[in-house]
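Recap for those who missed Tuesday's class. We walked through two folding examples back to back. For each one, the amino acid string is listed first and its predicted structure tokens come directly after. Nothing is annotated here on purpose, so try labeling regions yourself before you check the end of the notes.
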Amino acid sequence: MSAFQKETVLSVRHWTESLFSFTATRDPGFRFQNGQFAMIGLEVEGKPLMRAYSMASANHEEALEFFSIKVQDGPLTSRLQKIREGDIILVGRKATGTLITGNLIPGKRLLLLSTGTGLAPFASLIKDPDVYENYETIVLAHGCRQVSELAYGEHVVEGLRDHEFFGPLIRDKLVYYPTVTREPFRNRGRITDLIASNQLFDDIGQPGLDVRNDRIMLCGSPAMLEELPAMFSARGFVEGNHSQPGHFVIEKAFVER
């Protein structure tokens, strides 16, 4: 168990029947870059039961925050969804992940494309002052099946709009684009299709994809992570990683589905 730190749950909020978020204490020695993930979980029968979770909190915040799906028969989430304030969770001592700005070559517009709980690392990144320093525009797109599943993302963005420091930055630079596939909503459709048709860019009043200016991060469903990189590669975008920065990066570590 020495690879894990015991942390205390501070709050839990259930957004829908299938989504919840929670905060926990943060060991002063735990360091991470915005956009990274860590192994978190519970002690079950004396052994750690762990899964990869992106930090939804920023690295300058005192508490840790996570955004999770509920899987009724999932080995971890069937238990994790029942946590309450005061419970103990395990957090791995080391953070990692590809969704960090250092894995992208410099650009002017940053596209953060997510579905479902793939929003979590971007909830961290849009609270990073350096992101606003390095990019002229940040577009946060979040795709879900139903309108209710957008609630957490809307809550995060709304909180930043009211924030003393981030409020002015967001007004000038952050474009939030929620979209759903199964209910009436102002934005309808899969993120993949909305980018392919240029509808997303038309809706926000901005030019379409441009390899000279656009840098992209992806986190979400397997389908999106298969289709969009192929589309980007066909348009001359190069995938980046820790050893070689590129035009776009992907996070392939997922919480159980």
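Example two. Treat it independently of the first, because the proteins are unrelated.
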Amino acid sequence: MKQAETIDEVILLLDQIIEKSKIDQSNLGLFAILYREVTVRVKEGILAGSFQNGERMEKLDVIFANRYLKAYYQYQAKEKPSECWAFAFEQAEKFWPIVLQHLLLGINAHINLDLGIASAEVSTVEDIEDLKHDFDHINFILSDLVGGVEKCLIKIWPTLTWILKFTGKVDNFFIDFSMETARNGAWKFANEFVAVPENEREACTKLRDQRITEVARLVSNPGYFVSAIFKFIRLFERGTVAQKIIDMQIMEEKNMECVVA
């Protein structure tokens, strides 16, 4: 099971996942691109002194990333990852989820489950409050990137402008719901989890995993009206999965500025 020891190794492993996803025509590469950009920005932030404790932040980033990497490689090996990651990975094999849903399913599992656990692992009950500033900064980076993706996916969704105009930006509900709720819920969970005795953490993790999987089901099936809109968008998404991955890579390289075809 591949695991990273440094942020640079995290980026390298994410690059491998992205390239494999292109070859396999797998939607798993979509979240990996977004997460790679988050990791790069965290690395840059550490070097620039944007975090209160750079050493702790690198440790947190690696522990955090390794939870995603472990789940990914377990799924590839046909082993059983956490329930919320298994659900996200299974949706990646289906036709109907749109790009935004794939991203939100990954964010849901990684922020709502993994970030709270990773935060607790680099903290104690006495000092976890010291992490709050850096915890919020990671979430700010992710929220900023998701907002950039929304603005840039016109190339993949040629019907998106029309949809946003006539639905009052339905997709904003999912971004706002995912980011704000995930951030607050993950911090609350981190504070609870850090106080859980070691012999009870597995049961606590399992219970949290089940709850987060229910959130994933909502993202996957948001009700008749929104689901119908998303299916309409999906029918007009351009290109192969590999091309969508390449388009998102271009967005990353252009710092999420829209690329004109």
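Answers for example two:
The CA atoms of residues 123 and 130 lie 9 Å apart.
The chain has a mean pLDDT of 86.
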